[in-house]
Amino acid sequence: MRAAGHAVESILAALNTLGLTIAARTLRAWCARTGTRNGAAGRVAARTVTDALVEDAVRAAAFTTNRAGEPVLAPEGLYGRRKMLALIRRTVLPEAGFGAVDRAMRSVGLAGVVRGKLRGAR
Hints:
With 122 residues, the chain is mostly helical. It has two domains: 1-43, no CATH class; 46-108, no CATH class. It is built from five helices and two strands. The protein has helices at residues 8-17, 24-34, 46-62, 81-91, 98-108, and strands at residues 63-65, 71-73. The protein is elongated, with a radius of gyration of 24 Å.
């Protein structure tokens, strides 16, 4: 930041008046790690973008709204990971991966229905 003509000390002085004491080295390390330069945000990882798209697709497939406007679990919300992956690939995102669907279902709170095993015919 100093090489670009920005002094960190003025920022730290303003933060100190608010009661926040941060070392100059800490602020420079944080800015270097997040990729923040001149107020511009750092780059977002491709996996983060893909996961957000897949999570939106899973939410749209698993939930509907009733007449009162409340979200209600749709029949597709009972799907397991493999079936949900097939649904998402077929309808919305053909490039969706199994791991992305797995993470999306975990974050939404879906686990699928486990059917009990049938015992052998006696």
